[in-house]
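Thread: "does anyone have the structure for this chain?"

Original post by V.I.:
We have the sequence but no experimental structure in hand. Need at least a predicted one for the grant figures.
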Amino acid sequence: MYSTLISVDQLHALQTAGTPHMVFDCSFDLMNPDAGAQAYAQAHIPGAIYAHLDTALSAKSDPYAASGGRHPLPSRERLAQWLGSVGFSNGMQAVIYDRNGCNYCGRLWWMLHWLGHDAAAVLDGGLQAWQAAGNPAETGAASRHPETKYVAGVEKQALAATKTIADRLGKPTQTLIDARATPRFRGDVEPLDPIAGHIPGALNRPFSLNLGADGKFKPAAVLRAEFEALLAGRDPASVVHHCGSGVSAVPNLLAMEIAGLGPTALYGGSWSEWSRTRGLPVAKG
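Reply from O.Q.:
Generated one for you, tokens below.
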């Protein structure tokens, strides 16, 4: 079972052994929501299912959504229904990737663990690593699999709410880590949300810092040293990760798991929910 990362060679071994598994392509582009599906149609790992961030992995305009913000999390029940509809079952290993530097695939990784599905791992290096190893890519529409019934288990990821975060501002029981690029964190620019800035007291670690030049996650020891330097003595268990809408925060959460510093929590609504909630403080700089 793979629960954090899986390599291209390890995926090959799964395929060769006939281990029940499903591959998910989560490629996306916030500025062009159709681009991910178009890229999938041009090239994807054979047999992979396409998981669209805006439709499959978010619950916009759903009163039962599990979080707010631009990409509200679907309820656990709705997610389980979607997984069954694409043929994913409880006994399968999930392998999740994108072609965007792990910007989007972490979302489904987190959601599966939230459902209690331990056998969910991110393909280290994404589609680029798959193709660099000389493996074939498939073109065309999404593969179809017979529907199954997926049953959600015990939650294994913590989801933080806006009120809880606001109530704990400035307290040692909470450490906020913002995964957005530093200019957005500082409030110099804000291309997506109504207010620029960040949650007061938050630390900034752009999610791209978790990857090396080869597009793969840095070694566990390196990640551990970097996060310990960022935390500067703060308790890793107090960490709540966030970003713009709860998507690109997950690579930081995953990196802390790889480093042996988990589990940590996710603020699903992130800055997009915080900045739209009246009366909450904003910091800049």
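V.I.: this helps a lot. The two ends are 43 Å apart (CA to CA).
O.Q.: and The chain has two domains: 5-132, 158-274.
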